[in-house]
Amino acid sequence: MSDSPPHPGPSRLPSAAPFWLSVALIPLIALAAWQGAWWWLLVPVYAWYLTTALDGVLGLNEDNPDPETATDQLFWHRAVTLVWFPLQFAAIFGSLWLVGFTDHLSGWEASGLFFAIGVVSGSVGIVYSHELLHQKTPSERWLGDLLLASVLYSHFRTEHLLVHHSWVSTPRDAVSARYNEGFHRFFWRVLTDGPRSAWAAETRFLARAGKTPLDRRNPFWRYAALQLGMLALAVILAGWVGLGLFVFQAFIAVWQLELTNYVEHYGLSRKHLGEGRYEPVRPRHSWNASHMATNWLLINLQRHSDHHTKPDRRFPLLQTYAPDEAPQLPMGYPAMTFLAMVPPLWRRRMNPRVRAWRRQFYPEIEDWSAYNDGSLPMPRNAL
Fold it and tell me: What GO biological process, any one, is recorded here (predicted)?
């Protein structure tokens, strides 16, 4: 970890306030809906460019909070994740009402508005759902499910909890991007493999309890009901146009999520020990980033090395790591995802870092070809 000693855990509103940066996006959505025209551009400018510029000004935050801080001292940190679903729901369906019951927005203005909403529901909403789904309280998990249903990506819960955290950086995990794999190819692979992988994981999990996939405890029933409810509400509010706009914002949100997934583990592989056995997950198997402002917006998601080490650790308590323990991104996620959209720029910036990571942590491996093309054996007992 960072050489900085742990400081007392956050407990009051001032320490939590920076993590409420995301809430400013809601009035920006309202402004774009009211004014029309090009006002929707304020949302990506704020979420992508302003936070990246602030990273350049504020630099890195390498302080580590006390990981033993009690949950009851994190009220104001948790609160932003708890209030986010009603805020996002109001943004999505309030905008659909505006489209359906007024002629205030032209077609291109509505499309721009729902692009902006997709940026918010993807770069904030799915990040918050990720935090909520890792918790043990039913209310938090339900809020996570509702957020995922609002972007039609409910299977992410199963895929993330049952597959990704167990088999990250192995061939079993679809969202562990391979070395030299461009984002666009990765995106298509995840869209096609992810739902099938999640279904297989859930059915095998049920089979271990002697249940069939049709059992009421299969969460895919809940996923389907929530997603159908969201789609039905979109049609009620704005007809088929509303359905199209809702699906459009969901696609933009998923695009944002999978860009982030691509960045988080690109080129990082767990060592194959033979016969389908892989080394344990370590901080070195996720890219770490300590950039201050983007970690505020993304509630410390960029401290991803620690998240995979302690998946149930709440976001205010996530630790950062030094370069001798985890590979470091040169910029925060918003800037890195921009590079990922242009594969030649991405490879120029990241491939040398992957090769340096391999020399640093695995000098004994001379042939990486099977890691690069995903042809290593599937892990034993993988869901």
Answer: lipid metabolic process
Q: Residue 7 in 3-state DSSP?
A: strand
Q: Contact at 8 Å (CB) between 82 and 140?
A: yes
Q: What is the pLDDT of residues 25-71, one digit of tens each?
A: 999 999 999 999 999 999 999 999 999 999 999 999 999 999 999 99
pLDDT in tens, 146-187: 999 999 999 999 999 999 999 999 999 999 999 999 999 999
Give the residue carrying structure tokens 């998990």: 141
Q: Which residues contact 310 (CB under 8 A, 6 or more apart)?
A: 67, 318
Q: Which of 90, 169, 91, 83 is nearest to 132 (CA)?
A: 83
Phi/psi for 322 (5° steps) reads -80, 165
**Cα–Cα distance, 10 to 89 (Å, whole number):** 29
Strand pairing partners for 6? Answer: 64
Structure tokens at 66: 């006390």
φ/ψ region of 320 (left if φ > 0, alpha if ψ in -120 to 50, else beta) reads beta
* Cα(259)–Cα(131) distance, integer angstroms: 18
